[in-house]
Amino acid sequence: MTVEIGLVLTIILVMLICLIKEVARPHFILFVTLALFLLIGILEPEEALRGFSNEGMLTVGLLFVVAGAVQQTGALTALVKRSLGTGNGRKKSLARMMYPVAGLSAFLNNTPIVVMFTPIVRKWCEDRNIAPSKFLMPLSYAAIFGGTLTLIGTSTNLVIHGFMLERGLEGFTMFQLAVVGLPASIIGVLYMVTIGDKLLPDRKTSTEAFQDASKEYLSEAKVEKNSSLAGKTILEAGLRSLKGLYLIEIIRNGYRTAPVASYTTLESEDRLIFTGPFSTIIDLQNVKGLHVETGTDVKLNELQNGSASLMEAVVSHRSVLAGQTVKETCFRTTYDAGVVAVHRNDEHVKGKVGEIVLKPGDTLLLLANRDFEKRWTGTEDFYLISPVDKPEITDSKKSLISLTTLVAMILLAAFGILSMFEAALLAVVTLFLTKSVSVDVTRRFIQFDILLLIACAIGIGLALEQSGAAAFIAEYFVEISSGFGVIGALFVVYLLTSIFTEIITNNAAAVLMFPIAHAVANQLGQDPVGFFVAIAIAASASFATPIGYQTNLIVYGPGGYRFTDYLKVGIPLNIIYLIVTVSIVSVVWLNV
């Protein structure tokens, strides 16, 4: 091992530790790593910037726009509602949901699909007295299945495709991955409606959990007659500085005001509803002029009024809220909404609301103005779960244009008339010229942090390759799997990619493993395409943790899941995909 190889591997190891411990956002960690390689001379500037002009990365950016335009149409929602059926035969409905969702995910970004369908599926379950936990995890898994079917099924496939083109290879065709992905998906759905269905928990939704636990965190105080507080604002009365309690609503003469602004003036006999642990009730008792109740008869669903609504919002993996306390985020001021409670890992998070450190996947129960959803849908901070809103596009002509453009793009790329990048570029130009999407709306669709992560990861992968670190690791892989030949090496490559995907991001896992897989194939004298197919499938097939793939995180809170639920249901799926992939790749691409 040379000094340069040792240095590169050390930096990569530190990067992986930072990703696992979530010391910062993934794209920032990779950006710093890339900058470090540039500053110490491992990469030249043009090499470090190569990822920003990579065809695969640019194609991903264009497809965000195409998928966003189609997402706005009402056709997708109607399709899933029809596919679920009446609910007479739960397992049949489960299969009927998973197959079309997988089909849609093969051509559209799976994250917005799961965001869009989670409230629909949950409402469908609740109307039929079925635990949503029986359907939401399968919804996420179905979207992941679809990502393994086509070149555009997930950004990971396109990144690997772009790497292949840079090395003079032909790249993946539109349906090449389906050789592995289709049989694996079919087996995956069969597993979910049989064994998986038995392993899935039958659990309360986050809404029901919030309702059941409401007596633990809702309390009430009343402004006494002739109280000195009457005529004072909330801020002047010191009700903004309570350590553990948040004022979420004022009830006055039967009329409810929520969320409560700091300039709101108090009146005698106002009923004040607070959220927070009862251990902090002494803070209220110290406020002169307030009569504190030992509890409240106000039910959770009664907090709503004509202007305010209870909403559930799941903290996004890209949210600025993650890693901060509710108080540090200045939540009420920033979002004009009050945090009533926080739900995590199938239970209400106890303690002072303001001191709860928020994590990706947390479900927040909010009391907010009814325009909250409109203002914050599509932002990086939340996956909004309720209430369910209608799609933005109601113009049937624009809907038809969006769907036709998508089909035309797929056909042009599938038949080799245009490259995937050219077809996606033409599709975006068509959508702009027909005014099916606007520039302002497009900004919401493009996930810039993912594009930055991909671009940086490509440069890091180049550092692994050019320093000789990839070849060094490949030699080790070949050596430890020598007793099992090519299949053993393929198994190790798939397994390591799968492990990386579960603990870091799927795109980073694929980019790190690409040069290693390429070196392994070269040392074994095998067609590298088979190894690239394996890492593409492994990087997408993430089922064993809620953090491995963002669609798993989206359904984590709304489904009332625990971390162990993913391990129990997902590990067998990971094994199924590993066996199917290694078996088919060995026969189709490798000389075994």
From TrEMBL:
<feature type="transmembrane region" description="Helical">
    <location>
        <begin position="484"/>
        <end position="517"/>
    </location>
</feature>
<feature type="transmembrane region" description="Helical">
    <location>
        <begin position="101"/>
        <end position="121"/>
    </location>
</feature>
<feature type="domain" description="RCK C-terminal">
    <location>
        <begin position="205"/>
        <end position="290"/>
    </location>
</feature>
<dbReference type="Pfam" id="PF03600">
    <property type="entry name" value="CitMHS"/>
</dbReference>
<feature type="transmembrane region" description="Helical">
    <location>
        <begin position="172"/>
        <end position="193"/>
    </location>
</feature>
<feature type="transmembrane region" description="Helical">
    <location>
        <begin position="141"/>
        <end position="160"/>
    </location>
</feature>
<dbReference type="InterPro" id="IPR004680">
    <property type="entry name" value="Cit_transptr-like_dom"/>
</dbReference>
<feature type="transmembrane region" description="Helical">
    <location>
        <begin position="57"/>
        <end position="80"/>
    </location>
</feature>
<feature type="transmembrane region" description="Helical">
    <location>
        <begin position="569"/>
        <end position="590"/>
    </location>
</feature>
<feature type="transmembrane region" description="Helical">
    <location>
        <begin position="445"/>
        <end position="464"/>
    </location>
</feature>
<dbReference type="InterPro" id="IPR006037">
    <property type="entry name" value="RCK_C"/>
</dbReference>
<dbReference type="InterPro" id="IPR036721">
    <property type="entry name" value="RCK_C_sf"/>
</dbReference>
<feature type="transmembrane region" description="Helical">
    <location>
        <begin position="529"/>
        <end position="549"/>
    </location>
</feature>
<keyword id="KW-1133">Transmembrane helix</keyword>
<feature type="transmembrane region" description="Helical">
    <location>
        <begin position="28"/>
        <end position="45"/>
    </location>
</feature>
<feature type="domain" description="RCK C-terminal">
    <location>
        <begin position="298"/>
        <end position="382"/>
    </location>
</feature>
<feature type="transmembrane region" description="Helical">
    <location>
        <begin position="406"/>
        <end position="433"/>
    </location>
</feature>
<keyword id="KW-0813">Transport</keyword>
<dbReference type="InterPro" id="IPR051679">
    <property type="entry name" value="DASS-Related_Transporters"/>
</dbReference>
<dbReference type="GO" id="GO:0006813">
    <property type="term" value="P:potassium ion transport"/>
</dbReference>
<keyword id="KW-0677">Repeat</keyword>
<protein>
    <submittedName>
        <fullName>SLC13 family permease</fullName>
    </submittedName>
</protein>
<dbReference type="GO" id="GO:0005886">
    <property type="term" value="C:plasma membrane"/>
</dbReference>
<dbReference type="InterPro" id="IPR031312">
    <property type="entry name" value="Na/sul_symport_CS"/>
</dbReference>
<keyword id="KW-0812">Transmembrane</keyword>
<feature type="transmembrane region" description="Helical">
    <location>
        <begin position="6"/>
        <end position="23"/>
    </location>
</feature>
<keyword id="KW-0472">Membrane</keyword>
<dbReference type="GO" id="GO:0008324">
    <property type="term" value="F:monoatomic cation transmembrane transporter activity"/>
</dbReference>
<dbReference type="Pfam" id="PF02080">
    <property type="entry name" value="TrkA_C"/>
</dbReference>
